[in-house]
Design goal:
The complex is a heterodimer of chains A (248) and B (198).
Chain A: E1 2-5, H1 17-29, H2 37-59, H3 68-75, E2 80-90, E3 98-107, E4 111-118, E5 122-127, E6 130-136, E7 142-144, H4 153-164, E8 174-179, E9 185-190, H5 193-196, E10 201-206, E11 214-222, E12 225-236
Antiparallel strand pairs in A: 1-8, 2-3, 2-12, 3-4, 4-5, 5-6, 6-7, 8-9, 9-10, 10-11, 11-12
Helix pairs in contact in A: 1-2, 2-4
Chain B: E1 4-5, H1 8-14, E2 23-32, E3 38-48, E4 53-59, E5 65-72, E6 75-81, H2 88-102, E7 111-114, E8 120-125, E9 130-136, E10 142-148, E11 152-159, E12 170-174, E13 180-191
Antiparallel strand pairs in B: 1-7, 2-3, 2-13, 3-4, 4-5, 5-6, 7-8, 8-9, 9-10, 10-11, 11-12, 12-13
The chains are: A alpha+beta (248), B mainly beta (198).
């Protein structure tokens, strides 16, 4: 059953902050096009930012049918989040999915660690105003990846601060559809053509047995290509050491 | 390098590098770009040696598909390309690199034999003054050397195991017209169907 349609950007209705996050993502993707490394960096960083935001936003969905005010009130109590995740990539070129595993950590006011353990060790860090991505190379050394520069840092951190304090603004990039019932979920669809070339839709599935928690996020890229993020071991307001947010 | 003509077993040994049946490789790719910057990506490659067809995709570690294209009989089919991987030169260069690594040069070698160090070598002449040497060392490691006008190296690749494709660590270096390097580390290898490379 559809409870609301295209209402996500209006206060007092639904968890539309996800839309706000994606709107930022869409804006950066449509800001110009040239074959530069920095643009590649933007693409990767924005995608990373999108996933990170979905992670965070997902954990804040306190009650799917609650009011916007209750979401803001509940989110104000979040000081840290940690979770493990499994990423399942399905593409036409693959006969079986490519599975990655990792952990996600958020510590207020502005630190995020998004780490992959396999098949490639990689860490995206946002800490004290800087964003960096490191990967472990064949020789076991950690190297900072190109393209994850300072250009996206301020926007990303500002967004984190926004959602972590429940202050979300309007969005025009996606339309949201909330489907309730025994298998509730939110569908996000891009209303901007250039964004639709990158992501055709997003589905957010809550954990039925754990109110307020997200079970999965499915990102559809079109042509049958999807990325599914399944979460487990979610911990709220646990002690996270600062060293987690430094170069590995 | 001087080729000492020798028996056909050396020509057969040169073929060890290349897959003989359709296969799918998933690799971690550590790239060093012409400007010296480094990045790590995941590559998926399907090769159909019989049809000389290749399909190649690149995605970020976070799962964003950046590029997906195939080529057969020099016809490129593009399925997806995000900036900055959406230019025609990039797709040609990427598919050319994949073909360089996974398909033996067309035709028979002009020369084959043995090098002074005991390695097997096959030398293929190509169009426009280009040539490729396929070298398999006694320890089963291998090299591909592409050069033009007899001496100017344009591309080289080295691998740890001549076992039918990207099964060990493979390093590809572009030298001309731009310098870059790709180190490919295997994540998985599995049999594929010929149509998977379309």
């Amino acid at each position: 059953m559809i409870l609301s349609e295209h209402k996500g950007i209006h206060s007092g209705t639904r968890p539309f902050f996800v839309k706000h996050i994606i709107e930022k993502h869409a804006h950066l993707h449509t800001s110009g096009k040239n074959e530069t490394l920095s643009e590649y960096g933007n693409a990767v960083m924005n995608y990373a930012r999108l996933i990170t935001m979905l992670f965070c936003a997902g954990f804040l969905l306190i009650g799917w049918t609650d009011s916007w005010e209750s979401i803001r009130k509940e989110s104000a109590n979040i000081s840290s989040i940690s979770a493990s995740f499994t990423q399942t990539k399905r593409m036409k070129i693959l006969t079986s999915p490519l599975v990655s595993n990792g952990t996600f950590c958020f510590k207020g006011p502005n630190s995020v660690r998004w780490a992959y353990d396999e098949p490639v060790k990689s860490v995206l860090l946002l800490h004290r105003g800087t964003s960096k991505r490191f990967t472990q190379r064949h020789n076991s050394s950690w190297t900072e990846d190109a393209g994850i520069g300072a250009e996206a840092t301020s926007v990303m951190l500002q967004e984190i601060i926004l959602w972590s304090t429940g202050r979300f603004t309007e969005c025009k990039g996606f339309t949201a559809e909330l489907l309730a019932g025994t298998a509730p979920r939110i569908h996000l669809r891009p209303c901007d053509g250039s964004l639709a070339k990158i992501i055709s839709g997003i589905e957010i599935i809550p954990a039925i047995d754990k109110p307020g928690m997200i079970q999965s996020i499915i990102i559809r890229e079109g042509e049958g290509n999807t990325t599914t993020l399944d979460f487990a071991d979610v911990k709220i307001n646990v002690q996270l050491e600062d060293k987690l947010f430094r170069k590995p | 390098m001087h080729v000492n003509p020798s028996g056909p077993e050396h020509r057969e040994r040169c073929r060890l590098l290349f897959p003989v049946a359709p296969v799918r490789f998933i690799n971690a790719i550590e790239a060093q770009l012409p400007d010296g910057k480094k990045m790590t990506l995941i590559g998926i490659t399907v090769i159909d040696p019989g049809g000389r067809a290749v399909r190649a995709a690149i995605m970020t570690i976070e799962g964003l598909l950046l590029f997906d294209a195939s080529t057969r009989n020099d016809v490129i089919t593009l399925y997806r390309a995000l900036p900055p991987f959406d230019g025609p030169e990039f797709r040609r260069a990427l598919l050319r690199d994949v073909q360089f690594l996974l398909l033996p040069p067309a035709g028979e070698p002009q020369q084959y034999g043995i090098l002074n160090n005991g390695s097997s070598i096959c030398r293929y002449g190509l169009a426009d003054g280009m040539a490729i040497d396929v070298i398999v060392h006694p320890d089963n490691s291998w090299e591909l050397q592409e050069y033009k006008n007899g001496s100017v190296a344009t591309r080289i690749a080295k691998g740890t195991a001549a076992a039918g494709g990207l099964t060990g660590i493979v390093v590809l270096q572009g030298l001309q017209p731009q310098r870059y390097s790709l180190q490919l580390r295997p994540i998985s290898v599995e049999p594929a169907k010929p149509n998977d490379a379309k």
